[in-house]
Design brief:
The protein is an alpha+beta fold and about 325 residues long. The protein has three domains: about 210 residues, Jelly Rolls (Sandwich), CATH 2.60.120.280; about 50 residues, Arc Repressor Mutant, subunit A; about 55 residues, Orthogonal Bundle (Arc Repressor Mutant, subunit A), CATH 1.10.10.60. Strand 1 and strand 2 form a beta hairpin. The longest helix is centred in the last third of the chain and has 20 residues. The protein is elongated and about 85 Å long. The N terminus is likely disordered.
Length: about 325
């Protein structure tokens, strides 16, 4: 049933899975969809139907490109998480919670957690659609990172969303890039940091694209984080300056959104978070070089020790701050 499987996992990051399936059995088709989404029933059509499925899953996010070559009815007894149904070709009637949405290339159905859902695929041959599923904790968690406070109660996404031409092209490019990266075993998506950033990008894209009760808060400028939150990030930087922090990592440690952290650093520190981190690293590197001596270490060893991964850039920043090259400091060390 499956013609290719790629499964990569990383310590401390979501498990990345990529699979491709083909089948002519409604039972097998339903079993595959249940594996990636939830229990469903693919009702047997009047004639044999070809089913194709390309799935990408990492953490709370699942993206599936689903294709049927004949009219097919898929019944979901109970929905978990959030689902965006966006046909790329053909059309389908999506029924859920008293809503009926005629989804097509410029119109998507958005299903939240709840009761039964039915997707009736059109008579157009080779209907292909993207099904994006995000579990509730994953969506709420990303929203909390963005606004810097807990999300209380359901987000209440609208049942349908118009897809302007440019948005359609943008989503198509995004998914095409993701699929290409997954198919390539050496692609950037197989790097843990890239996979995590890509996942957050897709979830954030949904949150800023559709109306919901937190939309205005996302659109408005962020309030600067309070000094106590900034102190938590500053303490983390001084405790482990060599750690490969990202802005999102520091925001999580401070318990605020990325934008709030950035505004707070500008207000209370006078520099962006990453610039402050680099300054602290440079100070440690300078102290190490000043007291080491060329017989005991090298510039590269010192740079890597304090979190600098690009030696040329490290040398430039060092020279801009201290007026000499790091090799000169090391050569004249006490």
């Amino acid at each position: 049933m499956s013609d290719r499987t790629a499964d990569n996992s990383y310590r401390g990051s979501p498990k990345l899975e990529y699979h491709r399936y083909h089948s002519t059995s409604p039972v097998e088709s339903g079993a595959v969809l249940a594996r990636y989404y939830q229990p469903v029933t693919v009702e047997e059509p009047t004639k044999s139907v070809k089913f194709g499925f390309e799935a990408i899953r990492f953490g709370p996010l699942t993206i599936g490109m689903i294709e049927f070559d004949h009219p097919t009815r898929v019944v979901v007894p109970y929905r978990e998480g959030y689902h965006i149904i966006a046909p790329q070709r053909g059309s389908m009637q999506v029924t859920f919670d008293g809503h009926e949405v005629a989804a097509g290339p410029t119109y998507a159905a958005l299903l939240g957690p709840g009761g039964r859902g039915v997707m009736q695929h059109s008579a157009h041959s080779r209907l292909a659609y993207a099904s994006v599923a995000i579990d509730q904790a994953g969506l709420d968690g990303q929203l909390e990172r963005l606004i810097g406070r807990p999300v209380v109660g359901p987000i209440h996404l609208p049942p349908e969303m118009s897809l302007p031409a440019e948005l359609c092209r943008s989503w198509a490019r995004l998914f095409r890039l993701l699929r290409q990266e997954c198919r390539n075993g050496q692609g950037l998506i197989h790097q843990p940091l890239m996979a995590e950033q890509f996942r957050r990008c897709i979830i954030t894209g949904l949150l800023v694209s559709v109306p919901h009760r937190y939309r205005d808060e996302l659109s408005n400028g962020a309030r600067p984080a309070q000094p106590r939150a900034i102190r938590r990030a500053v303490d983390a930087i001084h405790d482990e300056p060599e750690r490969p922090y990202s802005v999102a990592d520091l925001a999580d440690l401070a318990g605020v959104s990325v934008r709030s952290l950035q505004e707070g650093f500008r207000s209370h520190i006078g520099a962006p978070p990453m610039a402050y981190l680099q300054a602290v690293r440079l100070t440690h590197a300078h102290e190490t070089l000043s007291h080491a001596g060329p017989e005991r270490t090298t510039v590269a060893d010192v740079a890597y020790r304090w979190g600098f991964t690009h030696l040329g850039r490290f040398a430039q920043m060092y020279h801009a701050r201290y007026g000499v090259h790091p090799s000169e400091t090391l050569r004249t060390a006490i």
